Amino acid sequence: MNTSNKVAVVTGASQGIGAELVKALLERGYRVVATARGIQPSDNPKLVTVAGDIGDPDTARRVITEGVARFGRIDTLVNNAGIFVAKPFTSYTAEDYAAVTGVNLAGFFTITQLAIGEMEKHGSGHIVSVTTSLTDHAIEGVPSVLASLTKGGLNAATKSLAIEYAKRGIRANAVSPGIIKSPMHAPDTHAALGALHPVGRMGEMSDIVDAILFLDNAPFVTGEILHVDGGQSAGH
Fold this sequence. Notes:
This protein is α/β, with parallel strands linked by helices. It is built from 6 helices and 7 strands.
C-alpha cells in the first residue's frame, strides 16, 4: 500500500518521539490519529487528535472509532506512550505500580486489540511498540524493574502477536531504544547519559522515528525487536 493511503495511530503523541513521529508520518502522506492526555485539537484534515489517558479503555475505543470514522481504516498502530520511574525496587509504591502498568501495559492492551480487529477486516496491518533496551541489558545505577516488567512484557507480546497473525497479513514489531534526547532528559544530564552507551552519546528522536518508518515499510519483517540503543544491548 502506498503510504499516502495509510492510516496510522500514534499514542503518546503530544511531545517527544511521539510528536516527531506524527510530523514525519504526515510529511510522508500518512493520515494520522494522534492521542495523548494533553494533545491539542488540530485543523489539519489529515490529522485527528484524541485527548485522554491511553490506560483508560474508553480512550482507546474513542481513538479507533474516531480514526475509522474519519479515515475508514487503521493500517498501523504505534504504541509509543510510556512511563519510566527510576526508583530502587523496594521504594516503588502502589501508585507507581498502577501508573506504570496503566500506561505501559493497559495502554498497549486495549488499543492493540481494537486496532487488530480493524486490520483483520482488510487482511493487513502493522503493530509497532516502543520498548527499552534496559529489558535486555540492565545498567548499574539506573534502577528499572518496572520498566523491565512492563516493556519486557511488550517485547514478548510482540513476538507472540507476530506468530499469531502472520498468516492473516498483520505484522508486529518493536523498537527498543537506548536513552534518547527528548523532553524527558534535561540538557545538563546528556553527557552522563551519553556515557552509558558504547558509542558514547545519546540517541536522537529522529533515530527512533526512522526505525519505526523502516519497520512500517518492511513487509517481510515481523516479530523483530529492533535495538536502536548505541550498542547498549550488545554489551559494554
